[in-house]
Amino acid sequence: MDEAVLTEDGVRLWATRGGEGTPVVFCHGGPGIWDFLGDLAELLTDRATVHRWDQRGCGRSQRRGPYSVARSVADLGAVRRHFGLDRMALLGHSYGTQLALQYALDHPERVSKLVYVSGTGIDNRDTWRPTYQRNLRANLGKHLKRWETLDSRKRTEAEDRELCALQWSADYADRERALEQAKAAATPWYGVNFECSATINAEVNRTSGTPELRAACEKLDVPVLIVHGAEDIRPNWALDSLEQALPRVSRKTLNGAGHLPWVEDPNGFRTVVGDFLADRR
C-alpha cells in the first residue's frame, strides 16, 4: 500500500512497506531516479519488514528541492518516524549506499545494521571512475554510438528513457539479456530529475576521499555488510577503502552478477543478506 511521508519542510515523499521481520529501510540509487527495488524486497519479505521510498524530487515523490545529502538524510529520518521505527536496518544500493552510510554516521543510535550493495567506497571518485568509464563503453558495445549521441544533446522524454536503458544495460553480467533487463528496470518510467542528480553528485565529488569521512567511518559502531557483484563495471577494489576503515564489517562478492546482484544471483543474494539481517549478534 502506498503511503505519503511529509517532511519537516512540507515535501511529500512516496513510501511503501511489506513483509515480516527485522525492519529495514531501502535507499535507492541515482541520485535523481526512483526506487526500483521491488524485486529485491520480494526476496526478503519473509525475513524482513521492508520499507521503500522515493527520494525527494524523484519518481513518485514531490518534485521539489532543495537537493543535498544532508537534506536526504533528514528525509530518511522523516521516513523512519512516519513508520514508527526507533531503530532500523538500512540497505543502500549504488548511490543509495552513500546516503545510508551518511545516515548511519550521523545517527548511529538509530541504525541496527547497514547493507552496502554495489557501492564504490569512500576514496575520491577519480580513483575508480576512469576504470568505470572504460568498462561502461566496453559493455555498451554496438550501442555505444547511439548512447554517445543521446548523451551529447537535448532529448525528449522518450529519448531520456532510451539513454538510461542503454546505460543501465551495461550493469548486467548477462550480456545477452542486458538490454531487456534494463528496459524492465525503466518500466514504469518516472523520469530523471537531472537537477537533483547534478547537485548531489557535485556534493559527493567534493566530500569523497576526505580524511574526515574516513575518520568517521573508523568510529562507526554498526555492523556493515558489503555486497558486490563480481562483474560490476564499478571496480571491486574501490570498496577496499571502506572495508579497511570500518571496525565491524563483512564482505561478500557474488560471482556472475553485475551492479544489480539480486537480479542475477537471487538465491545467493537472499541467503547472504537475509542471514545478515537475521543475525542478532
TrEMBL record:
One Gene Ontology term, aspect cellular component: membrane
Known Pfam families for this protein? Abhydrolase_1 (PF00561)
Per UniProt, which keywords does this protein have? Hydrolase
Family matches, as InterPro entries: AB_hydrolase_1, AB_hydrolase_fold, AB_hydrolase_sf, Peptidase_S33
Q: What's an example of a GO molecular-function annotation for this chain?
A: aminopeptidase activity
Which processes are annotated in GO (biological process)?
Answer: proteolysis
Q: Start and end of every AB hydrolase-1 domain?
A: 23-265
Q: Which family does it belong to?
A: Belongs to the peptidase S33 family.
Protein name per the record: Alpha/beta hydrolase
- Look up and give the organism this protein is from: Streptomyces himalayensis subsp. aureolus
